[in-house]
Amino acid sequence: MNEIFETIKKIAFDIDDAIKNHDLGYSDGENSSGESQLKLDVESDLIIERAFREVSSVKNIVSEEKEGVLELHSDGEFTVCYDPLDGSSLVDVNLSVGSIFGIYKGELKAQNLVASAYVVYGPRIELVIATRDSKPTLYRSIGGVFKKISEVSLNEKGKLNASGGTQQNWLPYHKTFIDSLFASGYRLRYSGGMVPDLHQILLKGGGLFSYPATSDKPNGKLRQLFEVIPFALVYVMAGGEAIDDKGRGLMDLVPSFPHDTSPCFFGSKYEIEALKKAYGV
Ligand code: AHG
């Protein structure tokens, strides 16, 4: 799997270069969820596909920007599911964005996730890698190479609160719960990019990130294979929890199709317990 992690490091530099130097306009296409694609979405997807074509252990790739599964090496061992440029609509206002990778072995379900990684393209490039046997590790690009910085851990209780979706469409008990966190001193931190938002909560010691079921998106917005399950591994291995709106662990999700979504909550243990009580689950 090390070859996959090293490839992700190379990909990170190439996508960072594209973000900084290439055209920000829209392409002519749509992704499989019917969303308009920026040229950068398409370019980032191609950068990743090209890179994994050189890695024989990667059997298949599944991209947020592609329909279905693409086989790269019939003898490969792993399927890499990825969101090449999450939050790409924030590039034109110069906010941080990210790439997310889930590395699966066998059927595409959370129990078969063996590792995950995400890259934050911000003032610096940072990378977090999670496996099932140790705390996630933070790397930072220094002088054109990724240097290992530290392991990351969540505190039992944090101070930050980030909830996605349009408030008008939140369910009443979600609004009551989020209001109660603010009333007890939590601070709002929400950029609209799940990678920098979850990264901030992780590195600042804890809190809660929610993308709930809403009246317009009853199954949430975030995709299980590329977004929800990879981050669930990071949060769980950092000592936090990751659940859906029924209180089920996100590490037990079984997507019905590659672009399936799920309501999701990632946080420190204290906030997730409080959420379960508020949701009655
Ligand atoms: P996109 O890649 O289409 O910009 O979507 C970003 C995702 C995710 O990164 C973020 O947490 C969420 O959408 C934000 O959605 P809301 O604006 O509905 O809160």
Key attributes of the depicted protein:
281 residues; alpha+beta; 6 helices; 29% helix; globular; binds 2,5-anhydro-1,6-di-O-phosphono-D-glucitol
What would your notes on this structure say?
α3 packs across α6 (269-279). This protein has helices at residues 2-21, 39-53, 172-183, 194-203, 224-237, 269-279, and strands at residues 26-30, 36-38, 58-63, 69-71, 78-86, 97-104, 113-121, 125-131, 137-142, 145-151, 160-163, 187-188, 207-211, 241-243, 264-267. It has an 8-stranded mixed β-sheet with strand order 4-3-5-6-7-8-9-10, sandwiched between helices. A 5-stranded mixed β-sheet has the order 12-11-13-15-14, sandwiched between helices. The chain is built from 6 helices and 15 strands. It has 281 residues and is an alpha+beta fold. The protein binds 2,5-anhydro-1,6-di-O-phosphono-D-glucitol.
Gist of the model:
This protein has 281 residues and is an alpha+beta fold.
Share of helix, binned: 25-40%
Largest sheet entry: 8 strands, mixed
Rg value = 18 Å
What would the average pLDDT be, to the nearest integer? 96
Q: Can you write the helix and strand succession as a string? A: HEEHEEEEEEEEEHEHEHEEH
How many helical elements? 6
Percent strand equals 25-35%
Low-confidence parts lasting 5 or more residues at pLDDT below 50?
none
Bound molecules: 2,5-anhydro-1,6-di-O-phosphono-D-glucitol
User: How many strand units?
Assistant: 15
**Biggest sheet, strands in spatial order?**
4-3-5-6-7-8-9-10
Distance between the termini: 37 Å
Task: Look at the helices and sheets and give the structural class.
Answer: alpha+beta
Overall shape: it is globular
